[in-house]
Write a structure and sequence with these properties.
- Two copies of one chain form a homodimer.
- By secondary structure, chain A is mainly alpha-helical.
- The first copy, chain A, has ten helices and no strands.
- The longest helix of chain A has 25 residues.
- The first copy, chain A, starts with 11 loop residues before the first helix and ends with a helix.
- Chain B binds a DNA duplex through α3.
DNA sequence: AACACCGTTATAACGATGTTATAGTTCGCA
DNA sequence: TGCGAACTATAACATCGTTATAACGGTGTT
């Protein structure tokens, strides 16, 4: 016996998606401070209670926005064709990450600065997401070409690269770079450096 | 003729400092969401209007908190004794940066995620601060030991290192690393990689 | 087919926030 | 001593997230 069928299960997912889309729209237009439940409800043609029934409150909405953004970032990374040379592949992944973040700066702020305030999703859940998995796959292909060395696990290298790209993009969004070209140059340099340094240590051993 | 002398210039700076200290205290205890003007005013034994007369509003208070935190970070980096070997010096600067950020996570959130929302201080003002200058000084000493190469300016290398350290620390504060040791390992690896990659390219040329 | 049930929705109200208006107060300076 | 300007405290205002409360609508049962 089914315990209890929801009142109107049809359209719930569509409602959630539309509400997330509208939230992303408002977020891109008015920034994080301009995203209020009343404004969002009006944009969706409903009342603020919809947020509570669909997401359990504003925090739940932000959590869903966090996951949706991570998913979008994962798709952006998956859309990068796996280049035969893992080094090239990794470089292009970094550029795709940067492009996605620059295209959605407010959403990127949610998956970084916002989760810094109150932990939305823990590290374990993060690394299950497709973006990190895609990065890890490229790293594994790189390591598969050489003799495996226990000091460098795919996770360690993936973490190092993730930190590199995130650091550059975060600084760029904060206006620390004079031009976008300068940011991209630093990104390319740091990515190549992290991978190159690892390979050099593996050869030396 | 002095245009207009302030009513009570004495004590203004002391009031500002005490208010910033109390704000940092509340911020460390209750987080960013718990910092309200009324709570801050009560902690200082005054009313919310003090924030407006001293800082021009909450944004002005956060701006001042931004600058104060940057100053504190600068002092933390200046407190690192300049090691004869610039490579060691740079590594220790990175660790000091991480230690300061971990000791004041909420303040670190202000100088990163918060300024991402609405630009507090632009890049030009940032690079005048003592923290960046200290880093740049260490880079310049490193470059002075070798043949100077036009492709790597001290600013470029300093930006690259700043991005590396910020990336690791930011991810660590977001809980992306399983342990603090893992974060420190990635920090050491990435810092050494960025500097080593640059030196390798200089030798090859 | 009629009924009871349960989730959803809209309205209104509550507490709290940042901000602003309005007096009252206090200090510096002529 | 008195004037004026800056600061302060109080209160009000608009807005925010959240929470009752009651009406609505679909679902499964009788």
């Amino acid at each position: 016996m089914p315990v209890a069928a929801p009142a109107q299960p049809a359209g719930r997912d569509a409602q959630r998606e539309e509400m997330l889309d509208q939230a992303a729209l408002i977020l891109a237009r008015d920034g994080m401070a301009g995203l209020s439940l009343r404004k969002l409800a009006e944009a969706c043609g409903t009342s603020t209670m919809a947020v509570y029934s669909l997401f359990g409150g504003k925090d739940g909405l932000l959590d869903a926005l966090y996951l949706a953004t991570m998913e979008g970032l994962g798709h952006a990374l998956q859309a990068v064709p796996p280049h035969p040379d893992p080094m090239v592949w990794l470089a292009e992944l970094g550029l795709a990450y940067r492009a996605y973040s620059l295209a959605h700066p407010a959403l990127y702020g949610i998956i970084t600065g916002a989760s810094l305030a109150h932990g939305r999703v823990d590290a374990v859940n993060l690394k299950v997401l497709s973006g990190y998995q895609t990065l890890k796959r490229a790293v594994e292909r790189l390591l598969a070409e050489r003799d495996h060395w226990r000091r460098y696990t795919p996770d360690l290298v993936a973490d190092a690269l993730w930190a590199v790209v995130h650091g550059v993009v975060s600084l760029e969004l904060n206006g620390h770079f004079a031009t976008g070209d300068a940011a991209e140059a630093v990104l390319r340099h740091n990515s190549a450096a992290v991978v190159g340094h690892m390979l050099a240590e593996m050869e030396r051993a």
